[in-house]
Design goal:
Number of helices: 12
Strand order of the largest sheet: 1-2
Order of helices and strands: HEEHHHHHHHHHHH
Helix content: over 70%
Radius of gyration: 23 Å
CATH superfamily: MetI-like
Low-confidence stretches: none
Structural class: mainly alpha
Length: about 280
């Protein structure tokens, strides 16, 4: 009876695991089946053109790709240094009591709905930029600040875990200190290189989170389908374009949004695969 229960449990778990993979496969097939006909119809050159005007049959998504890249790059510039410094502080400097307070607070950041971040940005970040830096306030800079905050939990948690996971038996830290290095030098030249793969994975996953975010950036970017000339210009990202127009799109317009989803899906898959590869390499 015990062996039967074990076999039954194993099969149930296998079916549940297979169902999650099957759902991913179904989603992939659905998106590709709805988006590829439009790409085949208009051609890659027109699909990656500079003009998005579905009413005129123009479906160029390059301005939105540039918008996604610019906002994500800004979020990385803001979020990566802060997240890395926070992870080093928690792993090497913070007292135990402080860690017990900071870790739940950082994890709470990940649980806040994205629309709350967007609403906060609309009330505080956008007016600050408009009053002190110029422009309309709805801009790449506003979106970068919001996304930079949103990716902090991912970068901090994984980076801290990578630093703490350095094998103690190799005595990296103790050996460096014994050779006369200061604590900061030990962190810079010994611990960070040893945890490099995990830190890079954290950064890649954070960037993936930034690229895939929709609701928060809809509220603070301005959603202008035009090439930006500065960080104070409004832009539209791939995700916000889908979120804004899917509700009323039909026929080729709807197919173009699914095709946009294919591009976004490929980008996210590349980032996640890279992070998984780096994690396995570290192990």
């Amino acid at each position: 009876m015990k062996k039967f229960n074990e076999k039954l449990s194993g099969r149930v778990f296998f079916i549940l695991a297979l169902s999650s993979i099957s759902m991913l496969a179904l989603i992939t097939v659905f998106i590709i089946s709805r988006g590829v006909p439009l790409i085949a119809n208009v051609g890659l050159k027109n699909f990656f053109g500079m003009t998005w005007a579905p009413s005129r049959g123009l479906f160029g998504i390059t301005p939105m790709i540039i918008g996604s890249v610019s906002v994500t790059l800004g979020a990385a510039i803001i979020g990566i240094p802060i997240g890395l410094c926070c992870s080093i502080f928690l792993a090497e400097f913070a007292p135990v009591r402080m860690r017990e307070i900071f870790r739940p607070a950082i994890q709470l950041l990940a649980g806040i709905p994205s629309v709350v971040y967007g609403f906060w940005g609309l009330l505080f970040v956008v007016p600050f930029i408009r009053n002190y830096l110029g422009g309309a306030g709805l801009s790449i800079l506003a979106g970068s600040i919001i996304l930079g905050i949103m990716i902090l939990p991912t970068i901090i948690s994984i980076s801290e875990a990578s630093i703490l996971a350095i094998p103690k038996q190799y005595l990296y830290k103790e050996g460096a200190l014994a050779l006369g290095l200061t604590q900061l030098q030990t962190i810079r030249f010994v611990l960070l290189p040893a945890a490099k793969s995990g830190i890079v994975s954290a950064v890649i996953l954070g960037i993936g989170r930034a690229i895939g975010e929709t609701m928060a950036v809809i509220m603070v970017l301005g959603n202008s389908v035009a090439l930006p000339t500065s960080v104070l210009d409004p832009v539209r990202t791939l995700t916000t374009n889908i979120g804004i127009e899917m509700g009323y799109a039909k026929d080729e317009h709807q197919q173009a949004l699914f095709a946009t989803g294919i591009v976004l899906f490929i980008i996210i898959m590349i980032l996640n695969s890279t992070a998984q590869y780096l994690t396995r390499r570290k192990r």
